[in-house]
Structure formats: C-alpha cells, structure tokens
Design goal:
Elements: H1 2-6, H2 24-36, H3 40-57, H4 63-72, H5 78-89, H6 93-97, H7 106-121
Helix pairs in contact: 2-3, 2-4, 5-7
Length: 153
C-alpha cells in the first residue's frame, strides 16, 4: 500500500535483518505481486530497491531467490534479466563453483549462457574491465515502460 499511496518502497532496516537472507525475498515477492497486478510503477520502484539493497549488502540473489523469480515470471521479464546480469557481472567465482546440480532453474542457466555467448561475440570482449554492475546501468535499464509510464528522467 505504501508503494501505491506514497510512491516508495517500505523502508527496510538492513541492520536488523539476517545477513544470510536479507530483504530480497520480500522485495521479490512484492515485485511479483506488482507484476501480476500490472502495477508498473510499483514494479519499477521495487526493481530499483532490489538493486540498492544488493549493492548495500554486496551480494547477488541466491539460488532460492532466483528460483522464486523464474518460477513466477515469463521470458523477457526485467527481474529475470537483472538476475541474469548479476550472475554474469557480479557473482563471485566461489558462488558459482559451489553450486550443486539443479540448484538453479534450467532456464536461468540457459539465459546466463546465452547472454555470455552474446557478450563474447560482441566487439568488446567480456573481461573484468567490461563488467557493468546492475546498479551502474542507466536508471531505467530494468524498468518497464509503456504509453502511460515513460522512461525515467
């Protein structure tokens, strides 16, 4: 309700949250509700908050959060694209090395591989200097827009 009436995501006291879980699960659930209700304004607010919190906590979405997002959205959804980019550009190698078979949805792994292949074929090689953090992309990169909801200024 705070998003609808006040145009902001409910404040989360990060210092009070469990470091393992953090607030991403609740934010993802709020995003999924907004997406289902076609509330683009709230969905965009939540996407921005997920990026802010991920940057503050210095962590990418975990396997449970990725699974929740992928089982509840369709191909091309901005949340999927953002999670894919987190794993390509920001995930620590140890996180990827410790993954067990079946921990991440097959479609997510496929999306990561396809994007990595696309980046490898592009004119700029994918190396440490070409990695772009999600939070450093243009403000609207993961937002949804239509005739009623123009790009952010």
């Amino acid at each position: 309700m705070q998003c609808v009436y006040h145009g902001s995501v409910p404040a989360t006291e990060l210092s009070e949250l469990d470091e393992e879980e953090g607030p991403l699960g609740d934010l993802i659930t709020l995003y999924l509700l907004a997406d289902k209700l076609k509330d683009i304004i709230t969905a965009n607010l939540v996407i921005s908050e997920i990026m802010r919190v991920s940057e503050e906590w210095r962590r990418v979405p975990n396997d449970d959060e990725v699974t929740l997002a992928y089982k509840s959205t369709t191909t091309g959804n901005p949340l999927r694209r953002m999670f894919r980019d987190y794993y390509i550009h920001e995930a620590w190698d140890i996180l990827l090395e410790e993954l067990e078979d079946g921990e991440l949805p097959f479609q997510f792994v496929k999306d990561v591989l396809l994007e990595y292949k696309r980046l490898a074929k592009s004119q700029t090689p994918h190396d440490e200097q070409n990695k772009v953090k999600c939070v450093d992309r243009e403000k609207c990169y993961y937002h949804q827009h239509d005739g009623e909801h123009p790009r952010c200024s």
